[in-house]
Amino acid sequence: MGPWRCLLLLLPLLAPALRAQQQQFMEYVERRITLLEERISQWHDQSSRYSTELRDFKNQVLGMLEAAEKEREALRAEAEGAAVRVDRLEREVDYLETQNPAPPCVEVDETLMDKQVATAKQRKNEKYTKLTDCSDTIASVRAMKILKRFGSASGLWTKDAAGTSEKIYVFDGTANDTVYVFPRMREFTLFSATRKAARIKLPYPWVGTGHLVYDGHLYYIRQQGLSFQVIKFNLANKTVVDSSVFPAEEQIPVFGLSPSTYIEVSADEEGLWAIYATKEDEKNMCLAKLDPASLDIEQMWDTPCPRENAEGAFVVCGALHVVYNTRLPSRARVQCVFDVSGTLAPEDASLVYFPKRYGSHASLKYSPRERQIYAWDDGYQIIYRMEMKKKLEV
């Protein structure tokens, strides 16, 4: 019997087994397909649920954002309203300060003033008897620091030249009546808005940039017609302590490059000084020693320092230092020194140059306590730190 015949005989016996295996395989495939369909259906349900939750979460977030935006707008409106109220309150405070009656100006006693002028003229150009042992003079500008830009092109900023207060006093412009006061240098440097500063409303407007804060008092210049007054103003109680008509006739601007300044009040280790000019000697400057208590002129000098191309001046240890420039701004320089005690000869003084800067110095305020100068240059506030030498070593 051949192999093919045996295979034919076995086929009827194997057919049921093959059909059974085929049936099992088909059932297995159907179960796997059913399981896959169930998983697809489950994934679809979960995906639909997640989509619904995501949509609900998105709507919730949008609602929260809308509520936050409304709250932000409400806070902004409240802040603007608060700013308006603060500005209104500041104006009301300024108004109340102006309503407080300041002591009346001291009436000028013509006889007394004539006597004071006569006494000062008798001592005119005499050698000055120094009150201190200060014998320093400026050798050079050691460092320059630009603090910020604040206000108009002309103005002045300073500390109290005699006290220990860290307050910064800012005079914006050459004709105004409001002084800004910052508590410290940090506040003045960081904040540009005047809202951060206290305001002092003066009873009379100032003229020029020759004012000074000294020992808790503001000494500032007021113009009345053709004459000029030195006003002594107490910064603590906001009242005028004293006033005096400056005893000089036919005054003219003291600095050729600063036409608004007629009197420059300066402070040094010796006390208060006034720098001015008159038509009597219109080419050069004059210097006077002031009594800070009574505003009397103690002594007067004619100096050899010319007004032409001068932009500012200050006094150090009894020596007048005049800063010159050109009408086209270049490097400012101390080119004239006049020592009232006669210790320092003009030819022995150092020629001090200031770093090149923006325009022209509107004011230069020397601080004898810190040995530095507070300068106002085209709206920029600058500090010059000075290198000092003994007069005999120059």
From TrEMBL:
Any one of the GO CC terms: extracellular space
Organism of derivation: Agelaius phoeniceus
UniProt keyword terms in alphabetical order: Coiled coil, Developmental protein, Disulfide bond, Glycoprotein, Secreted, Signal
Main subcellular location: secreted
Coiled-coil regions, chain positions: 58-99
Olfactomedin-like domain location: 133-390
PROSITE patterns: OLF
Cleavable signal peptide: 1-20
InterPro entries in the record: Olfac-like_dom (IPR003112), Olfactomedin-like_domain (IPR050605)
Family in the record: Belongs to the OLFML3 family.
Protein name: OLFL3 protein
Gene Ontology biological process: signal transduction
PANTHER family: OLFACTOMEDIN-LIKE PROTEIN 3, OLFACTOMEDIN-RELATED
Compartment(s) where it occurs, according to its Swiss-Prot or TrEMBL record: Secreted
